[in-house]
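On clarity, I found the account of how folds are encoded harder to follow than it need be. What matters is that the chain and its backbone geometry are given together, residue for residue. I therefore recommend that a typical entry be quoted early in the introduction. An entry of this sort, consisting of the sequence and the corresponding backbone structure tokens, reads as follows:
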Amino acid sequence: MEPSRVLDLKAFVPAKDYAKSKQFYLDLGFHLNWGNDQTSELQIGEFRFLLQNFYAEAYAANFMMHLQVEDADRWWEHVTDIQLAQKYPGIMAKPPTLQPWGLRVLYLTDPSGVLWHIADRRNA
């Protein structure tokens, strides 16, 4: 017998400073669907993740999220226009570059050190 149909899949993203991380994602363009003092659901487009009020340095330092977009350059413009790196000192934000595996990736860390790959695939 097969299991029942899958309805959703979300990652639990760690937060060292839960309020600061939540604001970071709101500033980046995510919308808060719901939240309490332990967990919040953040959404962009049709995609969601759960921000959790939990932090372990080794876990956060090795946690990565991938966001596939139409145009990584426009995302880079957005990140620089809203001055995300200035508002959140210590985060890493690198403009999109073509990677050997064929994606153009903008690398961005959140205030907890979670690494985001915001990527597009350009037809050569």
Observations:
- The beta strands are 12-14, 31-35, 39-44, 47-52, 64-68, 93-98, 104-109, 115-120.
